[in-house]
User: Fold these one by one.
Assistant:
Number 1:
Amino acid sequence: MSRLVDTVIAQAGAFLGDRITVNAALREQHSHGEDALPHAMPDAVAFPETADEISQLLALCHAHNVPVVPFGAGTSLEGHVTPVRGGITFDLSRMNAILEVNQDDMDCRVQPGVTRQQLNEHLRDQGLFFPVDPGSVCTIGGMCATRASGTAAVRYGTIRENVLGLTVALPDGRAIRTGGRVRKSATGYDLTHLFIGSEGTLGIITEITLKLHGIPESISSAVCQYDSMAGAVETVIAVMQAGIPVARIELIDDVQMGACIAYSKLEGLQAVPTLFLEFHGTPASVSEQAEQTEAIAVDFGGLGFRWAIDPAERAKLWQARHDAYWAALALKPGHRGMTTDAVVPISRLAEAILGVKEDIAASGLTAPLVGHVGDGNFHTIILVSDEPGAVERAFELDKKIVARALGLGGSASGEHGVGIGKRGFIEEEHGSEAIAVMRTLKSAIDPRGIMNPGKMFLN
Amino acid sequence: MSRLVDTVIAQAGAFLGDRITVNAALREQHSHGEDALPHAMPDAVAFPETADEISQLLALCHAHNVPVVPFGAGTSLEGHVTPVRGGITFDLSRMNAILEVNQDDMDCRVQPGVTRQQLNEHLRDQGLFFPVDPGSVCTIGGMCATRASGTAAVRYGTIRENVLGLTVALPDGRAIRTGGRVRKSATGYDLTHLFIGSEGTLGIITEITLKLHGIPESISSAVCQYDSMAGAVETVIAVMQAGIPVARIELIDDVQMGACIAYSKLEGLQAVPTLFLEFHGTPASVSEQAEQTEAIAVDFGGLGFRWAIDPAERAKLWQARHDAYWAALALKPGHRGMTTDAVVPISRLAEAILGVKEDIAASGLTAPLVGHVGDGNFHTIILVSDEPGAVERAFELDKKIVARALGLGGSASGEHGVGIGKRGFIEEEHGSEAIAVMRTLKSAIDPRGIMNPGKMFLN
């Protein structure tokens, strides 16, 4: 008996040729992200190269009720790209053209498969950069779909604040433009922000217009260590309240710091709670920001700034921060990492993090903690052995961390999204009526429910 | 024969008492905003005092298919508050409580009828302020509904960037919370931004959680005059590209400057294109920003900065800017003012403004020009006599200005919204498919079409 998906695959072959495939190795590659959730294979993987091909293939899937899963770089941590109901995975990695850079308006148009590294490489000569920096090698399309942020969001905003407009292919294949190139507009519903964070459940983003920023004239970085976690967190709160425009302010706990020192061969630093800071601006403004911040840090028990002014030393420091995940893994060879994600109002940050440290201790697990603390956002990297029950224990701790954040007026995810992993939390966070409205929107835009089914909402 | 609306009015009396009224004078007061469009009376005006009362009254209107028009301070410039199909106007002015201010998190919760002046008055002692400044005495709820911005948006963002969460009463009376107190979240569809700018067509905003900012340690203002409009506009573009965080950068053309000099008794200034600037920060940073900006201004033909450092002089300067509308009216006693609104990418600003100046000249009308030019946004104040055909000629010029902005990749409104006046432009701006999606959302959330009918969309 022939399946509907086979009809789609056969018909799509007419315009995609061998760029739609049922090859087992490729299907396996597209059966998971970087999460600890069960894998599931798509029936086929397509590699569209134009928005028109995406629209054509969507129209086919729509006509035959075949599930659609958009796939960028596959770095999702919450199961977004896992085709839990099979169907066609749309791998967007070949749509990686930088279409236009407008230096005068400091904006650009890119295809969804462009990575942030690729974009910044391209922009460097023009004195511009794209500031949203989640650490991983991810695509701009994926960042939009999950509402990503990262270390520089405290200064430059998340992806939400850095997208001016989108082109989106709707579930039935129709294409729409949202937003535009203007910095603000008061006309019509804000479709741009509806699709940002929609996790592939409403359509496929086929083009993005991004805000860019001028590369700062001066950049300096510093590290400040603390005897206590409370002192480090209180420093962050005070810096934010003082309105100092820090470019990055990252917290690394004692366990993670020990891991980073060993992994990245950092010298002269202790395995104690630590802030990594970066300042952007004119030379005078950077000096002033740094002086103000150091004064606050010392007030809260900071053991003084250690500067990394020259680019090589600065790069080494931030590379160590970006390698935190690998450093954590190196603590327990043979273990996997499960990254948690939660965010709280900044006034509750000390309480949240100290509580989470207790939860970790009570669990008996090793889980170094890092945080984009200027936004109230923090992660733990739970190290998971291959013993029976280990994954379940890790999920148990994850649940406790999220529950704690929600109890403090926070959100179940600061930047990794809902996907499969956080579906059980969003009703508590948003309330049943708001979830009902979200479902109403989902049904209105995707009446057949073909777009990334099994994500965002519990059935 | 009894009308459905009479049933609603009678039943609402049970819980609103005399706070629902058919008084002719009150209905007349609620028959228009500050626009030049035809007035229309509501059947009744309600003055709810709680979110529950709003929900109850909405449920009644929903049950009886009676139109609903939310009304804040009535300062709309595009007909948003005109009850073109009658029904009940919800006047939210009594819901003007400031519910909570969190100094540590720099946020607050307010009811929709709070004005920005009231909020800033309340916050002053706490060292905080709310930066979105459209000039008029408007309510926070109305600002959310129209996606307002104003003079400080170039630095602090529009209302869109300063709302963390909302409580909304849906057309059938159900209440939802959107967003929250966290600075970022990656869970669920962005309902907050769907309601911001929805112009009362999707629900009534009953509570707003706002971001606040620390009052800057130092503020200084300057005026810079130019021989040519092009020099002034090019200065703005260069300042934005240099990444100087100006707090305000306002353009006033020769005609408006003449009006302001006369009306506000400004001494030592000429009726030539002029920039009003404001810098916020530490004393050192303010000095540096001002020096950098002045150097750019002089490069583009600016005749040097005139400083207004002491608070009284600064207040006088910005009062003159805020009184631009009244100054313009004083140019032609007996005329009304019709304010236009358009926004373009900043690289097209010189072209747009110089073109609009030609359009004004060709029209034979007097229309001083002002602009929040750091965002690419500008307004003209068309002076309209009471002669027959005068309003039509003004609308003709308005149309030309918008068409010119759209032709340059701009938007039909930077901050005044669509309402009735701009309905004819949004399909050209967004494309028919995007408008179809907006209508789909409208139908999904307001299936009976009771919410502010006749606004945003052409029938």
Number 2:
Amino acid sequence: MKPYKRTVQYYETDMMGITHHANYIHWMEEARVDFMEQMGFPYSRMEAEGVVSPVVELSCKYKKPCTFGDEITIGVSVESFSGAKMTICYDMQNKNGQEVCFARSEHTFLTRNGRIARIKRDMPEFCRAIERSMSNDFGAQTERDE
Amino acid sequence: MKPYKRTVQYYETDMMGITHHANYIHWMEEARVDFMEQMGFPYSRMEAEGVVSPVVELSCKYKKPCTFGDEITIGVSVESFSGAKMTICYDMQNKNGQEVCFARSEHTFLTRNGRIARIKRDMPEFCRAIERSMSNDFGAQTERDE
Amino acid sequence: MKPYKRTVQYYETDMMGITHHANYIHWMEEARVDFMEQMGFPYSRMEAEGVVSPVVELSCKYKKPCTFGDEITIGVSVESFSGAKMTICYDMQNKNGQEVCFARSEHTFLTRNGRIARIKRDMPEFCRAIERSMSNDFGAQTERDE
Amino acid sequence: MKPYKRTVQYYETDMMGITHHANYIHWMEEARVDFMEQMGFPYSRMEAEGVVSPVVELSCKYKKPCTFGDEITIGVSVESFSGAKMTICYDMQNKNGQEVCFARSEHTFLTRNGRIARIKRDMPEFCRAIERSMSNDFGAQTERDE
């Protein structure tokens, strides 16, 4: 998997002169959507097939500020996946390879009417794609291990 | 009608040290929603009855910057309403009565499936509320006339 | 301390029909700023005296979705404060008293040039205000204990 | 000049199921920053040399909704430039070449302390780059003329 690249926008800065911390949550989503596309099962397909995957928990550790014009590289990896829950990690680095933020999001899978979706039964192709990404997400993994 | 009051948030500032210009679009929406609530026909009721009212045009003139902690007073008034289109004006002032921004938004009315809604026929109560606000929106009007 | 009240805006919803999860980070900031104002030491005063207080870590547990028009009540309390770090908790409830989100943010204190601020020495009034809030933040506390 | 490409993000949609209208203001800024980079005088250089260029007026005509996953192509062109003011146009199209939004922003040039910057005297290289873009911005121009 190729990491997701994102340049910090002017409107994402605040009067402290740095990226406002809320924007990293947007980047996580962008990187996650890109990751699902790369793994061959875009998020839009999941919703088209009647399943939504809301965030039920998230955390961010802000390590180093970044600001307008900085290019951030976001390595995404699936930390765990049970069919009922999925935990995704995001390793954000600046151009010098310094860690800017480390984040995690946890997701469930629901049907349109709010019931728990039976993903293992109803979306086997998605499950296989996730599991494949977990066994060899070299890109994200090696960057984090360094 | 009472004008809408809004305190500028830290996350709405940018590295120039002032409110980023995109946020005023959010304030317009907040003030418009508040206005519809005051006039007795909340926007949520419109959607509950199957009509959405998308913005088809907008403009802003930024007169004076504002920043974190400033209290902005937004006078809202309906400039025109034809049943097919509605134009709303927003007069934003700071605590010293200085004009911060003057903005305008134009709206249509659509059914859920994207057809033009026949608002005069199907939503007479909304039309009456709008027309009433146009004949005596003293609050917003007098502030702008000063 | 009075809890902070916030009505969900239309622009804060997403195509899932609920509040997008990134917006809760904004609400945390709004509630924190309101809390500091209530405790008698506004955040703007901190910055005016040369200290910024960036978020270094945050976490959210999303318990129940909310959407456009919902009124959210946010109880704020200081969980810990050492002079070098401060942890704040946010308990967000809907009108029925159901927990919508529980969140936490951790802050450091820096001088304008990025050095660690010596808050206990240089901002004793702030420290006293925080400690006072910790000993009797009845409002937020009792709500969470229920 | 190459037009700017932007994929609509999930967090940019609202409960109407389409891109919320405020986000187009962000895209205008992204496209403008990209345009200045392409013309050889990045906006960051302008600020580094002590000049800021706030938006003093903007307008958007929303022609056709777009939503999550849509790729939007934004042609940017300088409509007028006097040294004191600059007007920029944005022509946003979807993948089928349909116009999604047409927008315009007007900018002034200020020094850090809020005075009008004498751009023709102090930033001749920027002025030349702008004028060059106006004489042959084939990319954006031809797209709009079609």
